[in-house]
Amino acid sequence: MNSKATPTKLGITLPILLAGLISMDSQSTAGAATIWTGPATNFTQSVASSASFDVVLPGVVHLTRGFNHWLYNPAAGDVYGQLGTPSDTEWAFAPSLNPTNATLGDVTGLSYQSFDSYRNGDLSSVLLFNKQMVMHLINEDIYIPVKFTAWPHGGGAFGYIRNTPTPIPAPTVWTGTPTNFAQSVASASSFDVVLSNAVHLTRGFNHWLYNPAGGDGYGQPGTPTDTEWAFAPGLNPATATLADVTNLSYQAFDSYRNGDLSGVLLPNKQMVMHLIAENIYVPVRFTAWPHGGGAFGYVRNTANALTANPTVSITSPTNGNTFTVPVTLTIAANATVSSGSVTNVTFLSNGTPLGSDQTAPFSISSGSLSAGTYAYVAVATANGLSTTSSVATVTVVNPTPSVSITNPLAGATFTAPANFQVDATASVAVGTITNVTFFANGTPIGSDPTAPFSANSGGLGAGLYGLTAVATAGGVSSTSAVVNISVQAPGAIILSSPRVSAGQFIFDYTATTGLKYAIENAVSIPAWQPITTNTASGSPEHFTNAFVPGAARYYRVIQVP
């Protein structure tokens, strides 16, 4: 190739090659498998409830359990008792897996099955408890280490610990002391350790760079794993800022290839290497790129000097706190570093970023929260190094409804068999009362899903009864105060001791305390006329009426409801 032809060839070929690379990148990253190794979150459910679930992926995978059945995913339309597996999931045991440093190689080859395929009677704790598993979110191709901590028989209770997404480091640019690397010949033992066990750069004969620490092999097309590259003509490596490097045009390393990436194209041109997974920008300038033999050399910046990682802790909310809907929380964190300054704190809820704060005091709003469990962590960054806080887990519950019995009144007495209406009022601050169930001595006597709430006592026999009402709203229930009543079996009514005293006609009658009696008289039977009613306070009861000499009167006493 002559020197006059070279500019023409670069001007035509390079844009075509770059377009191909852009297309190839968009295809290769879509749906790429990932594994979550972020801070563990602990989820527990004490009883089956449609309002209680673990939000694994908001709006996509929410896990809960119904009574003595397996898990299901209401976010995907699953219902209690549905056969199979929670939608979008498959599960595998992974006995030797370490969740904190698991890799895709550890999890992709496991034997995945539907969740209910592990069913042993009631999926007892013998099978699940304390055994390391992996949940695979199929559509998203996400692998999540999970370990069940509870799976009791019935009731819908369960608990597990699972990983959250691996936090994405805040971007940083290296402006530390430059280091000079030179390789005179291709060798598997010769490489520049840019980032230990993550990015090691070397060259094979007349090919481009590759990264053996990332699993690359000699001659592999593309770019060293975990890197992308850009020219930065006006960059000063010693004073470079994020604003100088984040908006450059980054490409795969081999997209700059001109024959054998000859010295005409690379040496003495300021570039930036972006370590993608770590979000680190490294100024680099090639000093040698001879034809063949695997030789090359460059000067690159090192990490900024730092005496220690930053420290970070969530100061609000307190781990274990419970809040009631409606609620919006302020997530606050304290972050410090012994040398330099904390430049960013990113807050995550259940592994999903809420946002970042670049200045102290560091905080962010949770937004309006619905009922559920939320695991918050904060990731502090200083001089390119990041630290993740301990998890602060809080529970948000729906408000507790209020309920009270309005009828009958406490102390009321009824005649056996007693049929009367029990009424209650119920309300809740947020949401709707969905049911009120009535009880007599703890035994249900009826339910009502709509106001006004009432039920019939259902023919109670003689005895003492404590009436209660249980109101439910949003999966949360509360019980009214007890209203005590009595139901009496009426005895025989016997009239006795008729007498006249001081112009009054008096007689006695036997009665049952608390029951109501009507006294009637008649000049001729059966023309009975009511005189009065009386609730008995004892036995015998006394009746007094004006005496009319010479007039015949008949009297009777009857028990009335």
What does it look like?
By secondary structure, the chain is mostly beta strands. The protein is built from 4 helices and 42 strands. Strands 1, 2, 6, 7, 8 and 9 form a 6-stranded mixed beta sheet that branches. It is rod-shaped and about 145 Å long. The termini are far apart.
Question: Main attributes?
Answer:
six-stranded mixed β-sheet, 561 residues, mainly beta
Chain-wise SSE layout:
Elements: H1 5-29, E1 34-35, E2 40-45, E3 54-57, E4 61-65, E5 71-72, E6 89-93, H2 104-107, H3 125-128, E7 132-137, E8 142-150, E9 158-163, E10 172-173, E11 179-183, E12 192-195, E13 199-203, E14 209-210, E15 227-231, H4 242-245, E16 270-275, E17 280-288, E18 296-300, E19 311-316, E20 322-324, E21 327-336, E22 344-349, E23 352-357, E24 362-369, E25 372-382, E26 385-388, E27 392-397, E28 402-407, E29 413-415, E30 421-427, E31 435-440, E32 443-448, E33 453-456, E34 463-473, E35 476-479, E36 483-488, E37 495-501, E38 504-509, E39 516-522, E40 529-535, E41 541-546, E42 554-560
Parallel strand pairs: 1-8, 10-17, 20-27, 29-36
Antiparallel strand pairs: 2-9, 3-4, 4-5, 6-7, 7-8, 8-9, 11-18, 12-13, 13-14, 15-16, 16-17, 17-18, 19-21, 21-24, 22-23, 22-25, 25-26, 25-27, 28-30, 30-33, 31-32, 31-34, 34-35, 34-36, 37-38, 38-41, 39-40, 39-42
Secondary-structure class = mainly beta
| Strand portion | 35-45%
- Biggest sheet details: 6 strands, mixed
Number of strands: 42
Rg (CA only)? 40 Å
Brief digest:
The chain is mainly β.
